[in-house]
Amino acid sequence: MSNKRFNTGSGPSQRQLRVGELIRRTLADVLNRAEIHDPELNAMSITVGEVSCSPDLKVATVYVMPLMGSVPVQDAITALARNKAELRHRIASELTLKYAPDLRFRADETFDRLDETRRLFSDPAVQRDLGAADDEE
Question: Nearest CA to 31 among 21, 22, 41, 40?
Answer without folding.
Answer: 41
